[in-house]
Amino acid sequence: MDKEKVEQLKIQMQQWLHEAEEFIHQTPPVQLYTALGVVLFTLFFLFIIRLFKRTASNTIVLTGLSGSGKTYLFYQLRDGSAHQGTVTSMEPNEASFILHSEKDKKGKVKPVHVVDVPGHSRLRPKLDEFLPQAAGIVFVVDSVEFLPNCRAASEYLYEILTKASVVKKKIPVLLLCNKVDKVTAHTTEFIRKQLEKEIDKLRTSRTAVSDADISNEFTLGVPGEAFAFSQCHNRVIVAEASGLTGEISQLEKFIRENVKP
């Protein structure tokens, strides 16, 4: 921009400033304050709308022990098939898509951002990267191989339910019992009760450690009472699915309850 254009811009700005000063002096104080109040209210309203839009998440996190069938579920949600589901994930599967069951729906359907976090113990820290933006957490349990893995699953679930990022935001958790199509699968009620018993034991031992050594964890349950998922700070729902056969209606219902279409 040359000097002549800069000088013209300065003159124009001075004229605008002079006109604004005259307008302020000529306007009655009541009208001026009213106009100022309307402007401030509008700015505040727009700020609230932008803040709400920014915090409304469409991320669903799939987690659980290795071999529980998370990757099967990921592909069923995305493609309606279990292809590649037999491969154990070593990196998070992450994608935004319209649920396969909703692709034929008319009108605008909101895509879901699904993250399948590897269940290997050394890879679990990756979970913390996604929890702050989660609208819901799906903890997948292998209904067939549940008993040998009950303790490990309980410890992992306990860690999730006591994380500050989960408790403070009250992120809903779906305890999804997978592979229920198998004859040897345990019932959802049996799995729920066993997990509650194991978490009750963990709660007792962890509380004793926390009393002696300051901990930032949130506590679970009610003192003096046996632990139940109904006592959690956030909502915990128990449901079932079969990633192999594609019976995931309860999973899809949970997703749409927390990621509105």
Automatic annotation (TrEMBL):
Keywords on record: Endoplasmic reticulum, GTP-binding, Membrane, Nucleotide-binding, Receptor, Transmembrane, Transmembrane helix
GO molecular function: GTP binding
Transcription as UniProt keyword: no
One Gene Ontology biological process: protein targeting to ER
Pfam families referenced in this protein's UniProt entry, alphabetically: SRPRB
PROSITE patterns reported in the protein's UniProt record: ARF
One Gene Ontology CC term in the entry: signal recognition particle receptor complex
Coiled-coil residue spans: none
Bilayer disposition of the protein: Single-pass membrane protein
Protein family membership: Belongs to the SRP receptor beta subunit family.
Designated name of the protein: Signal recognition particle receptor subunit beta
Organism listed in the record: Nicotiana tabacum (Common tobacco)
Gene name for this UniProt entry: LOC107821326
